[in-house]
């Protein structure tokens, strides 16, 4: 679905990718959580090679939301993984949000890659039983009619997720045009039944896209939600094993006012 790296972007559509990249660890079976769990703490050549493959994957998209990135600790060789992926994928804009600052051990968080420069970026903590969940909000295009893009990773427990969905709905309430790229840790059906999304301002894609575990996916817990004004022309769970999740890719057709804002010369940063 993605376009070749460096290919021009049609102003009326965007290729989106949401991916829980597990800090670059390419888990291929359940037992590796135990036998190769040390990669969550120490640097690994295998992880560096896998990050290069992730960089090649994201190169085909316009806006990428990433969960479980490392912003520069011992396990990532003290390099911000978002900067590495931006270089590899040819993105001139990137941003990382650290949700859990564990010093040298881990700088765990969320990331955004974009070929269109946002005019505003903000970081937001999310409620829940345990701390460490957040949302990254970027606004693109014309401030009078922006595209609001949120990257987030919701909690494992139902109660905390419900609180976080309420907070996310409030966060995007001022915006007409919204994309949420998330590891929601729950199914599309659960999202559709969530009271916070009952007003229909954020839509869950209709097809069942299974993403977890990547080597034999059975559950669809990774999603890209869109506001009603955007038309989804294609969606898929990408068949790669670069993490314990598979990425979700989506192509959306934009409303004319949003497309016009994104097409402004000062907004486009991709010079590949």
UniProtKB/TrEMBL annotation:
Domain Endonuclease/exonuclease/phosphatase: 17-245
InterPro entries: Endo/exonu/phosph_ase_sf (IPR036691), Endo/exonuclease/phosphatase (IPR005135), GPI-anchor_lipid_remodeler (IPR051916)
Transmembrane segments: none
Domain of life according to the entry: Bacteria
SUPFAM superfamilies according to UniProt: DNase I-like (SSF56219)
Keyword flag Signal: no
Molecular functions (GO terms): endonuclease activity
Keywords, sorted A to Z: Endonuclease, Hydrolase, Nuclease
Name of the protein in its database record: Endonuclease/exonuclease/phosphatase family protein
Species for this entry: Spectribacter acetivorans
Lineage of source species: Bacteria, Pseudomonadati, Pseudomonadota, Gammaproteobacteria, Salinisphaerales
């Amino acid at each position: 679905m993605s376009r070749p790296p460096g290919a021009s972007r049609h102003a009326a559509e965007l290729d989106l990718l949401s991916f829980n990249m597990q800090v670059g660890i390419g888990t291929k079976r359940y037992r590796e959580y135990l036998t190769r769990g040390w990669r969550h703490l120490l640097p690994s050549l295998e992880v560096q090679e896998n990050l290069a493959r992730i960089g090649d994957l994201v190169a085909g998209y316009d806006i990428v939301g990433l969960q479980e990135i490392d912003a520069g600790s011992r396990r990532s060789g003290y390099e911000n993984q978002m900067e590495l992926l931006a270089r590899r994928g040819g993105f001139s804009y990137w941003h990382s949000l650290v949700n859990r600052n564990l010093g040298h051990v881990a700088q765990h968080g969320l990331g955004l890659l974009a070929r269109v420069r946002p005019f505003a970026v903000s970081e937001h903590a999310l409620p829940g039983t345990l701390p460490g969940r957040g949302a990254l909000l970027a606004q693109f295009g014309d401030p009078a009619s922006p595209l609001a893009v949120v990257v987030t990773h919701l909690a494992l427990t139902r109660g905390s997720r419900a609180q976080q969905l309420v907070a996310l709905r409030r966060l995007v309430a001022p915006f007409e045009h919204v994309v949420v790229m998330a590891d929601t840790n729950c199914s599309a059906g659960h999202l559709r039944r969530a009271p916070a999304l009952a007003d229909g301002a954020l839509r869950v894609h209709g097809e069942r896209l299974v993403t977890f575990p990547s080597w034999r996916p059975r559950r669809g817990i990774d999603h890209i939600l869109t506001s009603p004004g955007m038309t989804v022309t294609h969606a898929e769970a990408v068949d790669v094993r670069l993490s314990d999740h598979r990425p979700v890719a989506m192509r959306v057709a934009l409303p004319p006012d949003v497309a016009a804002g994104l097409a402004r010369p000062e907004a486009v940063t991709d010079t590949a």
